[in-house]
Amino acid sequence: MRLAVVPGDGIGPEVVAEGLKVLGAVAPDIESTFYDLGAARWHRTGELLPDAVLEELRQHDAILLGAVGDPGVPSGILERGLLLKLRFELDHHVNLRPARLFDGVRSPLAEPGEIDMLCVREGTEGPYVGNGGVLRRDTPHEVATEVSLNTAFGVERVVRYGFERAVARPRKHLTLIHKTNVLTHAGSLWSRTVEELSAEFPEVTVAYQHVDAAAMFFITDPGRYDVIVTDNLFGDIVTDVAAAVTGGIGLAASGNLDVSGTNPSMFEPVHGSAPDIAGQGIADPTATVLSVGLLLEHLGRPELAKKVNAAVAFDLSTRDPKATLRTTEVGDRLAALSG
Ligand code: NAD
Ligand code: IPM
Ligand code: MN
């Protein structure tokens, strides 16, 4: 097994080091190759993701990424030119983001109840495709467009994946989140696709919510969700809310999957480079460790994924809520518990 590692910017390298500690404890046979991509390289060479590097990345079984984004680089350069380029070039059409409230973790909700949802966010379409432009820039008559792209092929494959995950879970429930009352063109494509596929998965119960109402239910009644399917932008937003109610962004893991297996899938924490705490050694690496769990599951090593998840669950159930743990301390504990 060959893993490409892109530590990236800010706290990226700090949390990736701990993720690799845990990976090394459970799967010492996995060989890691590091790729220097991100703000430092851009400053040095002006490069974001050279074609030759992308081709090398394709030769791996999976990618582990920390985070990209830097206050010293204009907004969007690294995000678009590196992170989104990887997701688009490697056809990461499913962005899988589980959100579970672990025992011992404090939710900001007074009565969170049981929360265990799996958000299936579309990853290669929607308003993220860069289909837009600017007219009359820097004039009072500037016009900017950012057109959301939705294809029958793209929507079908992500909704199908959502149903496949839902049918394999105890509750077998799937919620489509969209804004079909306003985005009537794309909304209709998403609704019809869910309706059509539901005939193939009669055991799965289906619900629909507009994204504004969903944002409310994530706070007032998150326990209602099992599997969620949604578009790229709505999925970005609701998964930060899901992270917040399940103990914070420091615990939220994700996988960018090419379900067909043609390209390597990429695993990364949901959070960004956190420039406000970078370099202090206080970032929580748990999200990255849980992303390593998703990676192992994806590489066909579910028994190792279980070990990692059990280590996190045990650690969280015994963490002193008042103690501020250092990044490396959390990594050491999780590696010891996993190995
Ligand atoms: P962010 O996730 O980096 O930070 C939001 C807040 O959460 C900050 O207060 C931060 O300190 C805190 N936080 C994040 N991760 C944490 C962790 N592991 N432990 C403890 N606290 C943590 O989001 P932002 O501030 O909106 O974005 C910062 C930069 O990161 C931007 O350039 C943005 O584009 C980029 N970004 C990248 C990714 C990615 O690489 N996948 C994701 C989100 C944002
Ligand atoms: C995320 C991030 C990215 C996204 C940005 C940095 C491009 O917010 O992974 O959630 O919007 O997908
Ligand atoms: Mn995000």
Automatic annotation (TrEMBL):
The record, for InterPro entries, names: ICDH/IPMDH, IsoCit/isopropylmalate_DH_CS, IsoPropMal-DH-like_dom, LeuB_actb
Identify the SUPFAM superfamilies for this entry.
Isocitrate/Isopropylmalate dehydrogenase-like
- Detail which positions bind substrate: R87, R97, R121, D212
Q: How is the cofactor bound?
A: Binds 1 Mg(2+) or Mn(2+) ion per subunit.
User: Which GO MF terms does the UniProt record name?
Assistant: 3-isopropylmalate dehydrogenase activity; magnesium ion binding; NAD binding
Q: Which gene encodes it?
A: leuB
Q: Which cofactor does it need?
A: Mn(2+); Mg(2+)
Q: Where does Mg(2+) bind?
A: D212, D236, D240
Q: Which family does it belong to?
A: Belongs to the isocitrate and isopropylmalate dehydrogenases family. LeuB type 2 subfamily.
Q: Name one GO biological process term.
A: L-leucine biosynthetic process
Q: Where does NAD(+) bind?
A: G272, S273, A274, P275, D276, I277, A278, G279, Q280, G281, I282, A283, D284
Q: Which UniProt keywords apply?
A: Amino-acid biosynthesis, Branched-chain amino acid biosynthesis, Cytoplasm, Leucine biosynthesis, Magnesium, Manganese, Metal-binding, NAD, Oxidoreductase
The subcellular localization recorded is: Cytoplasm
Specify the protein name.
3-isopropylmalate dehydrogenase
Q: Name one GO cellular component term.
A: cytoplasm
Which pathway or pathways does this protein act in?
A: Amino-acid biosynthesis; L-leucine biosynthesis; L-leucine from 3-methyl-2-oxobutanoate: step 3/4
Gene3D superfamilies (alphabetical): Isopropylmalate Dehydrogenase
Q: What is its EC number?
A: 1.1.1.85
* Main location per the UniProt record: cytoplasm
State the oligomer form and interacting partners.
Homodimer.
Residues with site note (Important for catalysis): Y128, K179
Source organism per entry reads: Modestobacter marinus
Per the record's keyword annotation, is Amino-acid biosynthesis included, yes or no? yes
**Upper lineage:** Bacteria, Bacillati, Actinomycetota, Actinomycetes, Geodermatophilales
Which residues belong to any copy of the Isopropylmalate dehydrogenase-like domain?
2-334
Q: In this entry, which stretches build a coiled coil?
A: none
Function, as annotated, reads:
Catalyzes the oxidation of 3-carboxy-2-hydroxy-4-methylpentanoate (3-isopropylmalate) to 3-carboxy-4-methyl-2-oxopentanoate. The product decarboxylates to 4-methyl-2 oxopentanoate.
